[in-house]
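Colleagues,

For the teaching module next term, I've prepared a clean inverse folding example: a structure given as tokens, and then the sequence designed for it. I'd like students to try predicting residues themselves before seeing the answer, so please don't circulate the second half yet.
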């Protein structure tokens, strides 16, 4: 493994531990206007721009509604991908588990809800840090896999269970699952994919020349 790959992997894991979120652009190419510049590969989010905005709005409104309705007695993480919502975290009873789902279902643009809320005590800070580290490791492995586009996946880990989301082909879904299951510490992998054909993938990977030129003309920064 060359120095550049090692540096990218280290940065990915570190960002996940600190933010429990997505990869940061700490080295290498920068995503600008939906295209990756500074390298030969142009990577475009497989969601439409409208779906991306809807996902951001769904997550924000859901978090606000849950906080308003349930206060601090629940710990719920909301992850939306292409308007499909994943609920993870902990609630004190089954009534709250179902009530949280109903609140989220009422939010505009939500297509479906996958309720993975657990009726258990909230995990400790150490447990949550371990989950964040696992997420970072999996993202690093996806980034290092030569046959996958890591930006096509959302990765969420709760209590050592990893949830994979994205618009991917059957081949990509199976490969990403294999990568996640092989990551030390992962006890279970749950797939929440929207499957597309290889033909659709080829279409999504075809970036118009005008977009390529526009991205190349923009400055690259950190």
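(Answer key — instructors only)
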């Amino acid at each position: 493994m060359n120095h550049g790959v090692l540096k990218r992997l280290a940065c990915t894991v570190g960002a996940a531990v600190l933010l429990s979120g997505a990869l940061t652009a700490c080295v290498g190419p920068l995503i600008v206007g939906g295209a990756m510049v500074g390298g030969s590969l142009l990577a475009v989010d497989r969601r439409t721009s409208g779906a991306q905005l809807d996902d951001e709005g769904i997550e924000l409104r859901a978090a606000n509604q849950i906080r308003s309705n349930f206060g601090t007695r629940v710990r719920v993480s909301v992850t939306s991908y292409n308007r499909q919502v994943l609920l993870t975290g902990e609630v004190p009873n089954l009534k709250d588990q179902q009530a949280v789902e109903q609140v989220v279902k009422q939010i505009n643009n939500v297509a479906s809800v996958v309720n993975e809320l657990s009726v258990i005590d909230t995990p400790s800070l150490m447990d949550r840090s371990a989950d964040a580290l696992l997420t970072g490791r999996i993202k690093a492995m996806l980034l290092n896999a030569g046959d996958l586009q890591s930006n096509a996946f959302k990765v969420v880990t709760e209590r050592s269970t990893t949830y994979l989301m994205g618009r991917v082909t059957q081949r990509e879904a199976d490969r990403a699952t294999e990568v996640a299951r092989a990551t030390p510490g992962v006890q279970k992998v749950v797939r929440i994919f929207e499957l597309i054909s290889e033909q659709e993938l080829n279409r999504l990977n075809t970036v118009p020349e005008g977009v390529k030129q526009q991205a190349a003309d923009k400055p690259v920064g950190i």
